Amino acid sequence: MKIAVLTSGGDSAGMNAAVRAVVKMGILRGCETWVVREGYEGLVKGNTKAPDTHNYSTTQGNPINLPESLKDDTLVRNLRFGDGPLLRDGEGDTSDASHSLKGRYIIRVGWDDVRGWMGEGGTFIGTARSTTFRTTEGRLAAARNLIKEGIDALVVCGGDGSLTGADKFRSEWPDHVKTLRANGDIGDEEVEKYGHLKIVGLVGSIDNDMALTDMTIGAPTALHRICEAIDNINTTAASHSRAFVVEVMGRHCGWLALVAGISSGADFIFIPERPPSGDSWEEEMCATIKAHRNVGKRKTIVIVAEGAHDKNLNPIRADDVKKVLAENLGLDTRVTTLGHVQRGGRPCAWDRILPTLQGVEAVEVLLTATQDTPSYVIGISENKVTRVPLMEAVLKTQEAAKAIGEKDFEKAMSLRDSEFGE
Ligand code: F6P
């Protein structure tokens, strides 16, 4: 089997560990392994240039006795992605322009290519929003590019929009093969050989917003970042006896806000799933904070999920909260929007363990996949790695979003869909 792995959607800490796990497990199970740069965009662009050959063996320095077939000197060693840190000092001739990956988006990789990826943040293979993959022509080009490289299995690590894209791609695959045959792009042998595409999803998102899995890759690290930030805010807040309104990410999901609030002892938390139930969130919040101040608290922390709203679905923004704290309680208040600090940086231990276990399982799923098995997404439930039918997870996620009353559900969904090529 030839497995390609790509990352899509907003990046999250642990994506590199996921790619590493898929590559290493794939090799151990006798597969050829490939990475696709820049998410679905790379699939659509494919390779317009022949691979560079050089003298490095991807097995170099690897203590494991790999199959002879993989001792191949044509693989790209220590991939060089733009400014990525993948070529380390003394390892390979970085000055040689022929090592550039320009014109190559689908790249065969070996064991050592992913060495050292476990603890690195972001995604070395890149992620992009692809409008072209959202079109039938784009997906047809993606199918052509995969078949050209002989790839028959795909691992997608991304959010629900990206995974929906993967499932759609798989379901359309036989039509793409037919069209490619009709256009003369492929022959009968390939039609026979590439009858169906095996796909599996890994959920990479800091939002922890996917149904049927307890945790998504990157959410624990983002949570750590928020907690650290609030710890830092706490000291200055206490010094000045100030209130801070901290806005956190999560899109339409309040998990980050809720759990960060619990782990930092926040005074009040706004999440989309459970808006304040009374007629006035302002009164409810002020009563709670006043009570805390009355028992001697010198500082106030209010966490606002970016998707928070009141019970009538009107958005609640950090600045609205600040205004109320200042005007109704007379508190000297500041707003801190944590932004992308939450998404960046090295993965915490759990964001190395989770993608590793799930990447291993993803390869096992592909090895047993048939035309009739559903597309799976790898989850974790009660500390056990699970396989869940991908579309069931996506549909349940959407139902949950509807149930919490996303104000503009269709718009929210199209935002998610735009992840197709992120
Ligand atoms: O889905 C991950 C996420 O970080 C959300 O929490 C946030 O709303 C969004 O992505 C931000 O996206 P961008 O990086 O495109 O600004």
Automatic annotation (TrEMBL):
Binding-site residues, substrate: 205-207, 242, 249-251, 306, 334, 340-343
Root EC class? transferase
Q: Which residues form the active site?
A: 207 (proton acceptor)
Cite the binding residues for Mg(2+): 160
Pathway, according to UniProt?
Carbohydrate degradation; glycolysis; D-glyceraldehyde 3-phosphate and glycerone phosphate from D-glucose: step 3/4
Q: Could you say how this protein's activity is regulated?
A: Allosterically activated by ADP, AMP, or fructose 2,6-bisphosphate, and allosterically inhibited by ATP or citrate.
Which UniProt keywords are listed? Answer: Allosteric enzyme, ATP-binding, Cytoplasm, Glycolysis, Kinase, Magnesium, Metal-binding, Nucleotide-binding, Transferase
| Residues forming coiled coils | none
GO function term, MF aspect, one: monosaccharide binding
User: Which subcellular locations apply to this protein?
Assistant: Cytoplasm
Region of interest (N-terminal catalytic PFK domain 1), residue spans: 1-422
> Which chemical reaction does it catalyze?
beta-D-fructose 6-phosphate + ATP = beta-D-fructose 1,6-bisphosphate + ADP + H(+)
Q: What does this protein do?
A: Catalyzes the phosphorylation of D-fructose 6-phosphate to fructose 1,6-bisphosphate by ATP, the first committing step of glycolysis.
Q: What is this protein called?
A: ATP-dependent 6-phosphofructokinase
